[in-house]
Amino acid sequence: MSHTPHELADEFPNDHAILHELKLNNAHFVTLSERYHEVNGEIHRIESEVENTSDEYAETLKKKRLALIDEISAMVSQAKAG
Questions:
Q1: How far apart are CA 69 and CA 50, in angstroms?
Q2: Using one digit for the tens of pLDDT, what is the confidence trace for 51-75?
Q3: What is the Cα–Cα distance from 31 to 27, expressed in whole angstroms?
Q4: Whole-prediction pTM
C-alpha cells in the first residue's frame, strides 16, 4: 500500500500531540480534518492516475486543500499559544 503524501501528520510533524488533542476536543477541527483527508485522498488518486479528471478540477481541489491546511494551521498555532 502506498503512502498518501500531505497527510496532516506529515504537514505538522512536530505537533502530533496538538493534533490529537484538537481531534478529541474540537468538533470544528474534526470536520476540517475529515474534509482535508477527503480532498487530499482525491488529489492523490488523481495524481496517481487512479482517477481521471480535468486539470481545472484538480487545481480546484488543490486550492481547497491549501485553504483547509491554512485554517488547520491557524488552529494548531492557536492551540500552541493557548
A1: 24
A2: 899 999 999 999 999 999 999 999 9
A3: 6
A4: 0.90
